[in-house]
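Troubleshooting log. The previous structure file for this entry was overwritten by mistake, so regenerating from the original sequence record. Sequence copied from the archived sheet and checked twice against the printout by T.R.
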Amino acid sequence: MSARGDSPRVGRLLAALGLWLAVAPGADAAEASKAEVRFFPGSGGRFEVAALEGEEGARLARLAEEAWLVWRGPLGLPDRWPAGITVRLTPTEAWDFAEPAWRVSAEATGLVSVWIRGDGEAGAGRERRWAAALAEAALTRLAISQGVGVAVRTVPDWLVAGAAEAALIEERPALGDAWRQAAARPDGAAGLEAILKWRGAQTADGDNPNWVGAFGVWRWLGAGPGRAEAWPRFVAALLAGEAPGMALTRVYGPGLARPEKTELELAWRTALAGWAREQATPLFGAEESRHQLERLARVVLTPTDGGVEEVVELGALKAAEARGFPAAEREERARWLTANFPRMHPFYRNAAGSLGRCWQAQGRGDEAAREAAVQEWRADFAAGLELERGSAAALDGR
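Regenerated output below.
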């Protein structure tokens, strides 16, 4: 999408993203001067997020970084591209694309951009849509790197949905439980043929049978003995426009080259039933629990006057200090802690609880309860660290 001869609505879109270029006369330049836009920091050469200042852009940047790490193995993404994928979180009032939720564009040089509509309540639904947009952009960039021309390039919706759900479940294991419950319902997941031909990811939600099935197919074809080499070749074939049924039987060989569609469907349903019966995700180890709590407890604050950044305990801030960005960070981290509390190692379970109580008191403005919870948090974390070190010493001395 370029700025030459743009209509006023394109000028408004670019202005809202802080990407005001040489826009044609008649564009509303006044809006550009009002926009407070920034590029949110991330790992260069991955996703580079541009958005209006605020919680949404910061959250999208974190999700993009985490999703890249999840997709590196299954999709064969590099550590970084020479030029990153530009992600533009676009205000609703500036959205005028035909697509309802996101648009991906690509140049022959390999430059890929994705526009994401920035509306919706915070939560799994919004992030599912964001993750799907990021996945389509990453798959488009992957296809270009594999030399797939625009005339045949195809990014299947089920692959986009499967990748999105994989990223979300990695971050929020409770969503894995929700997926298993949906998959266990009689009509919770669509049939294999319907999933592979599905179009509609931009308007689907996590309960859509095709979406539920998409993550199941992602796991089915990407895991298990003999799948490690077949999966990337299957993905490459799909991106190059090969019919999914032909690619499936050609790439996976005797294991899935079923002569009858009914046999292949039975194999899919059997695998899906197995995934749906899986037990909950196991506990974090003691070291991982400690690292997660350390990450959650600290926040980096930048003074509004441009001073030096400062690392502080989020819970140590008084309620009056924990407004705006700190409050948004607290709520985001509290959601993660709530979802992952059952996974915390027993050494650090008490610390996780007291950290959560600290944030709850802060949110209520109860300073006495917050101060008490902060002290409990520090004592519980120290106790967990002592238990971890003592356990490690005992094992080393065996």
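Residues 305 and 325 are 15 Å apart (CA to CA). Archived copy saved in two places this time.
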